Amino acid sequence: MSIKIGILGYGNLGKGVEAAIAKNNDMVLTGVFTRRDPSTLKIKSQGVPVLSAAELDNGAADVDVLIICGGSATDLPEMTPKYASLYNVIDSFDTHANIPSHFSNVDAAAKKAGKVGIISCGWDPGMFSLNRVYSDSILPGGTAYTFWGKGVSQGHSDAIRRIDGVVDARQYTIPVEKALDAVRSGKNPELSTREKHTRECFVVAADGADKAAIEEKIKTMPNYFADYDTTVHFISAEEMKRDHSGLPHGGSVIYSGITGEGNNHVIEYSLKLDSNPEFTGSVLVSFARAAYRLEQEGVSGAKTVLDIAPAYLSAKSGEELRAHYL
Amino acid sequence: MSIKIGILGYGNLGKGVEAAIAKNNDMVLTGVFTRRDPSTLKIKSQGVPVLSAAELDNGAADVDVLIICGGSATDLPEMTPKYASLYNVIDSFDTHANIPSHFSNVDAAAKKAGKVGIISCGWDPGMFSLNRVYSDSILPGGTAYTFWGKGVSQGHSDAIRRIDGVVDARQYTIPVEKALDAVRSGKNPELSTREKHTRECFVVAADGADKAAIEEKIKTMPNYFADYDTTVHFISAEEMKRDHSGLPHGGSVIYSGITGEGNNHVIEYSLKLDSNPEFTGSVLVSFARAAYRLEQEGVSGAKTVLDIAPAYLSAKSGEELRAHYL
Hints:
The structure is a homodimer.
Chain A: E1 3-8, H1 12-21, E2 27-34, E3 50-52, E4 65-68, H2 75-84, E5 88-90, H3 99-113, E6 116-118, H4 127-138, E7 143-148, E8 151-152, H5 154-161, E9 166-175, H6 177-184, H7 193-196, E10 197-205, H8 211-219, E11 229-234, H9 237-243, E12 249-259, E13 263-273, H10 276-296, E14 301-303, H11 318-324
Parallel strand pairs in A: 1-2, 1-4, 2-3, 4-5, 5-6, 6-14, 10-11
Antiparallel strand pairs in A: 7-12, 8-9, 9-10, 12-13
Helix pairs in contact in A: 1-10, 2-3
């Protein structure tokens, strides 16, 4: 019997989840739910209904696990607790500072309903968090360094698009090779924001726009760019479409710690992703399997990736994993 | 209240466990147990009793978790089930082919006693297994490559030492850079044994020994060396002591898989370890914490690293992990 998955929200992430479900034989997509008019939405999967998000409200939708593909700023804080009171849910909530309160809201709703809600799945938070915790548990007192990129930051790209005279923009976050090398050597360097990453921006300017002014506005934008070495390239709309239409990303968590009389150990986990939303969607889908199994066992409440035994993520049996993967 | 740890066996791994316990404030070493005459054993920790292994037999030793530091060939298949019927136990059983039967023996003993036995902890099996399973769960249908080294293989060093005329030997397993690059590029290459690793041997020969014959015996030794490009260096006993007395190791699990319309993703987990036994010992200690907690919750039976939620390994609370590590 397949695990029935619903997707709420059909942006890049929702499409990534849809692609991931197609790779997992023990799962079936039973509905895509949208806040838009469902008749305007064309999805890739054949024979899967597109339904109004309102159809979820009475708890009767035919889904074992609902994967909520909304934004962390305003969607998820409201949606995840709401739907956790009706369904097992998964989200990719990524505002690190607000995870504790989001966790507690989802926990209360899910416990009351006897459902499981796994929050903050993806790669950071998500796979990177797992590696920070495994490493810190094995080598307590060590230092974790997280690097992002090379990859497209959608938040930074959006910030550039909001500048007057900008038609389109793509921003790449790039880790500084020298910093990576210093960390990998186990030297435990102190690194400033500027020393860890650079930012490279590709911008399509409107006809007649003041490019120098745009460049200045980008480079001095607080929080987003002012603390980084930033380069800006003006390109044509055709070049943007041809060279920058993908959403690659990646990065690494590098942990360095000491045992005994000064023996040093370096643990590195790194990702090189052609498609950020498809990889993130794939992570969400594997945790959906875990949510379903936990509910079947009578577990309820909010969980994070740190609370899930790895075997729950796999479609393979314990016997098969022990025989071939251990 | 501290978790009371006992160590059975005081070789390199037992010493690595001892060093790890000293880094974990929530644990205390309450005894080192040995099959040798305890009066002949001098341990590093102050004020910790060295006791005969026989003291464990009635189940009354003052330990919450016993970490069994024996060999996989003959010690652990007998010892882990035996002590799992008396204590929570941890081992680093690493004969991959025999893990299913070892698991089932430990499971039966531990369940009957209401204890927890976590087998095959370490880095391979162990952390590498975790990464194979996480990756395969996220990107099913992809390919996992495991590389070992650069590091000292104790089994291969021992095999050389058994050759007539060899006084001492150290063997390094070295991954082939070209193979690593091909795998990292996501090309999914088919790699033979010879293409993945080379073997470098440092040998102290007895006075007057036939070095050419020794070299020939090493290079043609079935299973150990015949399938590899092997180089042999003859060195003096002084050089051996000066340059090769450490036990560094490491390696990587590289997983590559596809999503959607051919988007490729590469996940790499790599370790660079100054001391193999101290790192392995540190992994065992973190899983000892999990075994203790699981027994407190009423869980019993055999487990592997795949069955343990990561948060159980950490001395930090769920709240602290969510606030600072997620």
